[in-house]
Amino acid sequence: MKNTFTFLLMSIGLFTYAQNIPMYVGTYTGEDSQGIFLYNFNVKTGELNNRRLAVEAVNPSFLTFSKDKKFLYAVSESNEGSSVNAYKVNNNGSLTLINKVNSKGKGPCHVQLNKKGDKAVVSNYGGGNFAIFNINKDGSLQEAFQVINHNIETKKAHAHSAKFLNSNLFVADLGRDFLAHYIEEQGNFTLNEKYKMETGAGPRHFEITKNGKYIYVINELNSTVTTLKKDKNSYKNIQNISTLSSDFIGKSYCADIHLSKNEKFVYGSNRGENSIAVFKRNIKNGRLQKVQNISVNGNWPRNFTLSPNGEFLLVANQKSKNISVYKINKSSGKLSFLNSIKAPTPVYLLF
């Protein structure tokens, strides 16, 4: 009987442990934050707990993993010199700095790896450029081998995000209102085309469907999502749709955008309206239909993320310093609020 009881307790413990997965939180550092934090997220209940500091860092505002999750990369917006940092992920979830290299521009705000995991691209908002780095097998970063400047005499560029798609590289330039499309040729990237957004739109982040046929760009300054559809070796703008409620009055600025795992829904964050906009996606023609605007239960939603099982959406509210958790209705895509916890100036969430 004693052995049975012990086995039962062990089973419950293992089940509870299996329900919890790690989530890293990038922050702006200051009085309440010292770097990158680590939480446990319960994939059954949607609860966050057991917060601890994974590593001290300066303004690690955007994070990304290597494909095997053995390494984590973070930008660092520092007055002493902007950098991108490579970390080893330890068995207990803590992070150990491997090395850091200069981001080659002011205000790095985004880092992304290619599918193979041997290259990283960093977008420098303040510098108006982006830099591409080779990654060594031990996870360390080499110095940038290519830096591309979007600034022109008549207009300041603001590179805000970049993503690889096979031999393609796309870069959202908020300052010059375009999504740039580069193609890799003999180890370097050359410009293929610039896809113009509306004047003053301010493209910030974007999502690409798995087959590369559609790109969804969220525009910070005019609160819209632009849908681009592949046309031979190029893309064409087929739709612009507002992220805001029809009755909203005031100023609002978009931040982040994500596709659901099944690609049936698109989500976007509004800073000002302080909401998440939910769109139903037509799988056949790629067009979007807004189905919900829901409060983030906080102030100034920056980046947000979907849990790996696709059942929850979590929002980093920068100014109110909290993380809000929502349950996703898998048939409608709509969100329902579950809970919120206080968090030190959260701006990025990473599973």
Automatic annotation (TrEMBL):
Q: Which GO terms describe its cellular component?
A: cytosol
Source organism, top-level taxon: Bacteria
SUPFAM superfamilies from the UniProt entry: C-terminal (heme d1) domain of cytochrome cd1-nitrite reductase
UniProt entry tagged with the keyword Transcription: no
Which InterPro entries does this UniProt record tie to the protein?
A: Cycloisomerase_2 (IPR050282), Haem_d1_sf (IPR011048), Lactonase_7-beta_prop (IPR019405), WD40/YVTN_repeat-like_dom_sf (IPR015943)
Which Gene Ontology BP annotations are present?
glucose metabolic process
Listed Pfam families: Lactonase
Q: Please list the GO terms describing molecular function.
A: 6-phosphogluconolactonase activity
What family is it from? Belongs to the cycloisomerase 2 family.
Protein name, entry field: Lactonase family protein
Taxonomy-wise, where does this protein's organism fall, top ranks first? Bacteria, Pseudomonadati, Bacteroidota, Flavobacteriia, Flavobacteriales
